[in-house]
Amino acid sequence: MAHALIPTIRSHAEAAAGHLALIVSDVAVQAHRQPLAVVVAIRRLDGGDVSIVDCERLSHRLGVLLDEAELFATAFVLEVSSPGLSEDLVSDRDFLSFRGFPVELHCRRRGRHDVLHGTLMGRDEQVIWLNRKGRITRIPRGDVLQVRLTTGESC
């Protein structure tokens, strides 16, 4: 069950993040921890990597806003961080970084939804290449719905 203060905390976090060219991707309250923890995950508006300086700047600014709002009756810990790597491959950088990794590719072919498993070989403007049990498969990029990292058990 989501904590009742998450929408209010998110609102404060988004207000603070907007001034810093950051996007709030997730907010969680971990009430089971002592002291209670407010966890905020951020991304950079320009798509770059989140730095420790980005986290520090938002943490300071958001900490002031949360203290002023007096949302918590007891002490709390504020944790600001990057959400980490996504399993979805989207950018050119993702496809370069994870070349040779097992992936699951969702595509629309011949009017139906297919899921292909294989090792990512690369992509260009027209196609994505997968090694599927030693055979190279070319999938037109226009047919690709999603590419996700997997454990490789189905490859």
TrEMBL record:
Keywords: Cytoplasm, Ribosome biogenesis
Similarity comment text for this entry: Belongs to the RimP family.
Protein function: Required for maturation of 30S ribosomal subunits.
HAMAP family in the record: RimP
Lineage, uppermost ranks: Bacteria, Bacillati, Cyanobacteriota, Cyanophyceae, Synechococcales
Keyword Metal-binding: no
Main location: cytoplasm
Keyword match Translocase: no
One cellular component (GO) term of this entry: cytosol
Ribosome maturation factor RimP N-terminal domain location: 19-85
Gene Ontology biological process terms, A to Z: ribosomal small subunit assembly; translation
InterPro entries, per database record: Ribosome_maturation_RimP (IPR003728), RimP_C_sf (IPR036847), RimP_N (IPR028989), RimP_N_sf (IPR035956)
Protein name as it appears in the record: Ribosome maturation factor RimP
Encoding gene (name): rimP
Pfam families: RimP_N
Subcellular location: Cytoplasm
